Amino acid sequence: MYPTISDLLYDLFGFNIPLPFQTFGFFVAIAFVAATYLLKKELKRKELAGQLLPQKEFPSARHWFFASRTGRTVNQGKLVWPHERVDTMLVIAAIGGLAGAKLFDGLENWNSYMTHPENFIAFSGLTFYGGLIVATTGIMIYAHRKMINQWQLADSAAPALMIGYAIGRIGCHMSGDGDWGIENPDSKPFHGLPDWLWSYTYPHNISDQGILIPGCEGKRCFVLPHPVYPIAFYEFMICALLFFVLWIIRKKIKTAGWLFGIYVVMNGVERFLVEMIRVNNKYQFGSLRFTQAELISLTLFLTGTAILILRSKRVTGEIKY
Questions:
Q1: Which of 41, 320, 300 is nearest to 160 (CA)?
Q2: Per the UniProt record, which EC number(s) apply here (predicted)?
Q3: Residue 207 in contact with residue 55, Cβ under 8 Å?
Q4: What values do phi and psi take at 291, rounded to 5?
């Protein structure tokens, strides 16, 4: 495993460059860059098609006060297109995403956080769904305030969200952050398949789980005693494929909200199935045992289905605008 980018470069090329980049954080940054690029691209396409319109932006009271004191003139308002607000959305997504991811992870692993309070400020231990829910809520509130069509914005963001999640999963796998599956006792289906693609022990994982590696000294000297399913890599491959599906059909869907509804359904189904072989804490409710991700993914599936049904009714006239 490669806790830092320096570890990865050393293994690939044989030289050590002490870079201050954690592998997981590096891929999260790449995910944000890719998602931002695709979101801007989609917003511009919808603007050219007349599906999104600019809004007049007026100076704030602070600017008016400053102008009155200095004798300068103040712009009476300029047109701002939705794609020009993506950088602000990115800041909201970054802050809300990290806060939500940490919050939901804390709710899921409360005892661990009480034992190790320093985990509250650590960059590890992030729950995707927590970040998705809080970041999406923040961006939708911002879009409402700026009078951006929220359904068109959601559709524009759907492919970006899917590929961003896929790229982030590469960071989980390569750093060995503890997001892996249950033990995999089965032999490889065919010879030549790499161990890390079928059943892996995550040596030198960043979460320091497992048993000590003989002869290893210093940090990251643990390896899992039994090979497990590398589900983070599975999710990368699945979500990359789902991204291409969304990207191909995005121009064919004419109903605002449908593409986002399809994304939500895909996301819920994908994660629910992965949870069947994923190591995670389980909640007990009567005779039912389920993980936080299973509960949220089921909710997302139902929510996505509801979006598809309700947006269909709006188009057919069963529900009036």
A1: 41
A2: 2.5.1.145
A3: no
A4: -95, 165
196 burial (CB, 10 Å; 0-12 / 13-18 / 19+) is middle
Which pair of tokens denotes residue 265?
Answer: 């359904």
Residue whose C-alpha is closest to residue 308's, from 153, 151, 163, 162: 151
Q: Which amino acid, 8?
A: L
Question: Which residue ranges make up each domain of the chain?
Answer: 5-316
- Amino acid at site 280: N
pTM (whole model) above 0.70: yes
In 113-146, which positions are buried (b, 16+ CB within 10 angstroms) versus exposed (e)?
beeeeebeeeeebbbbbbbbbbbbebbeebbeee
Task: Tell whether residue 289 is among the known ligand binding residues.
Answer: no
For the record, the structure tokens of 53 come out as 């319109």
Over its length of 321 residues, how does the chain's per-residue pLDDT go in tens digits? 788 888 888 887 877 888 778 888 899 889 999 999 999 999 999 999 999 999 877 666 555 555 555 656 555 668 899 999 999 999 998 888 788 777 766 665 555 555 555 555 555 545 666 778 888 899 999 999 999 999 999 999 999 999 999 999 998 899 888 889 999 988 787 777 887 788 999 998 888 889 999 988 878 899 999 999 999 999 999 999 999 999 999 999 989 999 999 999 999 999 999 988 888 777 767 777 778 788 889 999 999 999 999 998 765 544 443
